[in-house]
Amino acid sequence: MPSARLARLTPYVYILPAVLVMLVGLVYPILSAVRLGFYDWPLGTDFDSARFVGFQAFAEMLASTQVWTSMGITVAFVLIAVSAELVLGIALALFLEKPVRGMRFFRTVFVLPMMVAPICVGLIWRYLFDANFGPINHLSAWLGLSPQAWLADPVLAFSAMVITDIWQWTPFVLIMVLAGLQGLDESVIEAARIDGASAWQQIVRVKLPILKPILIVTLLARMIDGFRGLEVIYVMTFGGPGLSTELFSLHIFKAAFISQKLGYSSALSILLLVIVSALSLAILLISNPLKAKARR
Known about the structure:
The protein has a single domain (15-126, 155-295), classed as MetI-like (MetI-like fold, Orthogonal Bundle), CATH 1.10.3720. 75% of the residues lie in helices and 1% in strands. It is built from 14 helices and 2 strands; from the N terminus they run H-E-E-H-H-H-H-H-H-H-H-H-H-H-H-H. The protein has helices at 2-36, 56-63, 65-97, 103-115, 118-128, 135-142, 154-182, 186-194, 199-210, 212-227, 231-236, 248-257, 262-287, 289-295; strands at 39-40, 51-52. It has a two-stranded antiparallel ribbon. The radius of gyration is 24 Å and the shape is flat. Residues 71-283 form the ABC transmembrane type-1 domain.
């Protein structure tokens, strides 16, 4: 009897180190951020001088129009950019799945943007979109189009931010989908081909349904990364003009290091965590309707 009980406990003993790491590296910082949200703690002072203000920071956050404007911009950015990245990444993966001449060259070129440091990406695209010296405006002039002040116009600046993110992170989707395609069972594809399925039907009714778990993981990874994106937009526009490109992560940064309100910025971070967690859970439940019904 003791040996059977010990055998049941053995798996938990093996995962105990990982659980401890998660508690220390994830749960403790979250609890610390929640605790800090109840204090007014100016940047550069000892925590002993922090003043307990209760729910004041959370109430101020929920009543701020700037907070919800920034969150709306972030949601629109993530929705547009991630959708485009999924479509382009899947299309490129399907193209590179077939043996074509120069396959290694294409794969290397497509993956390079993801390898560039975010700060460098921001500097590169800030130069490309420059109103006076940017190559994009020079190309527009060569095509007979009028130059645009890309980073000075709210709509164009938002579009530039989306284009930059698509350029940088479509390769991530490409890698994930291409790995899934290369792991497909060829007998399944061959059976669909024998049954008379066209190339489009093979993609829509065979390949994509099998790749659904990979696509869900890719969607979640890009969505979460989009909500916490900071470096590129910090370098490109710093949230301007006005608040047209101020992502929520940049709003948190400004609250902490410009307004020097560490307690308020912690409250903002908790709000971001709650919203991203809720969206992630909703995507998982929608993608697994049978499991969702079983839980009910």
